[in-house]
Design brief:
The protein is α+β, with helices and mostly antiparallel strands. The protein has a ten-stranded mixed beta sheet with strand order 11-12-8-7-1-2-3-6-4-18, with helices on both faces. Strands 5, 14, 15, 16 and 17 form a five-stranded antiparallel beta sheet that branches. A hairpin with a 2-residue loop joins β11 and β12. It is globular, with a radius of gyration of 25 Å. The two termini are 29 Å apart.
């Protein structure tokens, strides 16, 4: 069915991070298809947002171990239930689930379609965000400085690119667009650019679509996920939480709703919370596509699970792009052991003292779960200021970082030794030694990051 740029655009979101629920897409696609059937010329897109700051580095590590890996591990599980329906009803799919290897993700989708007996979809791959190769070292050195770069063992370096390449791919007929590190809201801006044919400097409309994408980017959060607080902010049927759908009009204004027949709720409060999520300056939300300004924006309740956003303004996009550089950061050792019953807290504190004396070369972080932990600090000031009490159910957690894995490993051995060498009644020891990833950020000139799409060649 031909599209109608005067008709509103529907964009459903089925993931807000890597590891999100793999069964979220079904109700979203059902709702998109039903609404498209009711309105001639209506277009619908399904987006998956699966990247966080460190997700790409972890994906690069997987690609090092397996040249065919490096994309979202749940990709096939997420797409299998809905791919046929999306292709049949022209619900196009846009996602950053390509992570560190978008081409491999595209090949995975191609193979999945073949396995399901579907016509080969036209899949576009976005390229240009990956700056981890040797060709870009001089660029990063120029931005981070030689002192910072010397000896740095880079795992990943990716620029946050914008929506234009996505729109170009859709204009060229892509049914599925696979990207790596595009900015989260750009997953919605790209379809809007393609559908409405806005100019790339139509700042107000771009800013409105950007904020629609911002409301979608965390998946179920705008529908009551990460929002519920019993008796204060009640959310119905949280166990069956629905995922959001944005209806964007030709001016870029949006109405946020959710998949039919699902739990959760789209309310003024849930929309306001998500609107302000990770927003450093309401008058200047910096993205690769536009600088969005919500200082005069309004949200309006239209009815159950329907909230409108109006009044967003836009300003010219930044001249530079943000780059996250993840690098090897040594090793993290962790160990836990439990104490229960009379004088449990005293025994846990004694165990921590044993570890401090046995491991003077390590800076230990000590938490007493059940006494103070989440609100504690690495230096132990909170715990030191907390007078010993009579807690009867305490789990001691100790952690330390070191560049030498052998030194870090000593912590895990000493925690294990507490079974017979520590206070009475310790049990349930668990230990782990994991590599650490540290992150540096910088800005690079936009012109240094050319971004484009390529269509995946048809399978032989």
């Amino acid at each position: 069915m031909p599209s109608n740029p005067s008709a509103s655009l529907l964009i459903g979101c089925a993931a807000g991070f890597s590891g999100d629920r793999a069964d979220a897409a079904g109700p979203v696609v059902d709702t998109l298809v039903a609404r498209c059937d009711q309105a001639a010329g209506q277009r619908a897109f399904l987006i998956f947002e699966t990247l966080a700051e460190r997700t790409l580095a972890l994906a690069q590590l997987r690609r090092r171990a397996d040249p065919d890996a490096g994309y979202e591990p749940l990709l096939e599980e997420m797409l299998r239930p809905v791919l046929a329906r999306c292709l049949m009803h022209d619900v196009r799919i846009v996602s950053n689930f390509g992570a560190a290897h978008p081409r491999a993700a595209a090949r995975c989708i191609q193979a999945l379609a073949l396995e399901l007996g579907l016509p080969a979809p036209r899949i576009a791959v976005i390229q240009g965000d990956d700056l981890s190769g040797p060709d870009h070292r001089a660029l990063l050195r120029g931005q981070l400085g030689a002192e910072c770069m010397d000896g740095l063992r880079i795992v990943s370096a990716n620029a946050y690119v914008g929506a234009q390449a996505i729109a170009d791919a859709l204009d060229a007929g892509a049914q599925i667009v696979v990207a790596g590190r595009v900015a989260d809201p750009s997953l919605a801006v790209g379809p809007a650019l393609s559908h409405f044919g806005w100019a790339p400097d139509d700042w107000d409309r771009l800013a409105r679509a950007t904020m629609a994408g911002h409301l979608l980017e965390c998946g179920a959060q705008v529908c009551g996920g990460y929002h519920a607080d019993p008796g204060y902010k009640d959310v119905p049927d949280l166990h069956a939480l629905g995922y959001p759908i944005a209806e964007i009009d030709a001016q870029g204004h949006c109405v946020i709703g959710k998949a039919q027949g699902t739990g959760g709720a789209v309310t003024l409060a849930s929309v306001k919370e998500q609107l302000l999520y990770e927003l450093h300056d309401p008058a200047a939300y910096l993205t690769p596509d536009v600088v969005a300004d919500i200082s005069e924006a309004e949200v309006q309740w239209l009815g159950p699970d329907r909230v409108a956003l109006r009044g967003v303004r836009g300003h010219p996009r930044p001249h530079s792009l943000k780059v996250n550089v993840c690098h090897e950061g040594g090793w993290l050792a962790e160990g836990e052991i439990s104490y229960a019953g009379a004088r449990a807290e005293a025994r846990a504190r004694l165990a921590a003292d044993v570890l401090r004396r046995r491991l003077p070369a390590l800076d230990l972080r000590v938490d007493l779960i059940g006494v103070t932990s989440v609100l504690g600090d690495d230096a132990g000031r909170t715990l030191a200021a907390h007078a010993p009490g009579q807690a009867r159910d305490v789990r001691l957690r100790v952690a330390a970082a070191h560049t030498n894995p052998a030194q870090a490993l000593r912590l895990t051995r000493e925690v294990t030794a507490l079974y017979t060498c520590g206070p009475a009644g310790g049990g349930g020891v668990r230990t782990a030694l994991t590599p650490r990833l540290n992150t540096l950020s910088c800005l690079v000139p936009r012109a240094a990051v050319p971004c484009h799409f390529v269509m995946l060649e048809a399978a032989p």
